[in-house]
Amino acid sequence: xxxxxxxxxxxxxxxxxxxxxxxxxxxxxxxxxxxxxxxxxxxxxxxxxxxxxxxxxxxxxxxxxxxxxxxxxxxxxxxxxxxxxxxxxxxxxxxxxxxxxxxxxxxxxxxxxxxxxxxxxxxxxxxxxxxxxxxxxxxxxxxxxxxxxxxxxxxxxxxxxxxxxxxxxxxxxxxxxxxxxxxxxxxxxxxxxxxxxxxxxxxxxxxxxxxxxxxxxxxxxxxxxxxxxxxxxxxxxxxxxxxxxxxxxxxxxxxxxxxxxxxxxxxxxxxxxxxxxxxxxxxxxxxxxxxxxxxxxxxxxxxxxxxxxxxxxxxxxxxxxxxxxxxxxxxxxxxxxxxxxxxxxxxxxxxxxxxxxxxxxxxxxxxxxxxxxxxxxxxxxxxxxxxxxxxxxxxxxxxxxxxxxxxxx
Length: 409
Known about the structure:
This protein is α/β, with parallel strands linked by helices. About 50% of the residues lie in helices and about 15% in strands. The longest helix has 26 residues, at about 190-215.
């Protein structure tokens, strides 16, 4: 697939307006992508999964529980502490893609994962090329506030990510304060210290509610571009297949409600991907938002706590970037840390080596990220081509490295 073909695919995917998690438009987009893969000669399965698309409302409830606990603690410290503890625990497990507590109380919607298995099941390593196809909701926080956020240094952006402020500035500080009150300490200083985190939760409540009520963006950058890069890379790898890799293509839905689609895929294939280690090992390369900026490979990710991604894949990216800088420097690749979660995180947490490839500039995402300006006209075809070629080069480098290793056992 050439640059024109990738752009055409992005336009086709963006024509499914409002393809948010769990919508009819998202399911139609999945069927369209499955047909595209079948036309390229791959066997495809469209796997249904159920998701909770109301992620912003879920965390608005966490904020509301924190506010209620803070207020109730003035009269009943134990009850207030229990409410905040439950909210903090539920929010942490949810953000880290581990377990759902409050989210499990919300209604479910049907979503779909597009899964195309490889043609070399006997290969020593199963490599999953992954890119989500659903689109996000916008909101006030992604407008002028996001522009101010992008002006910070990369380290400060990591520390001051809005979701980290919500958790570490709002929910977490209330626990020791209310714990001290529950222990019988009666001090005006405790009540003063209680105000800032409560105000942070109040602001978070309004911002999260605004996201929940906002419209769904076209999603050309995030993440029709990633889908185009993965399908293009898969075609290249099918024409010249790697010798030591069984290349899968997985296009999850419902990533924008905090990676529920990928969680569903991993849960459905748990034994095959994780427990059947005698036959093969599974690795994941996730491609997300690659139609702008430089090629960036993630070192770690996580909404409230940074989880390191696979060291081996990072080393391969480092080697590829270093060799490229000494040559044509066409990739302009750089490592990146960002306080987000995408489809690489649930795989890494569940023991599958994973890495994410993004398009960014000095650690910042595109200015139109999660806005209605994320349209195909904004696509930088050169950036998309660089990212696609980087993914293909990474896969071939991994294949060569595996070819130099002695057989297992």
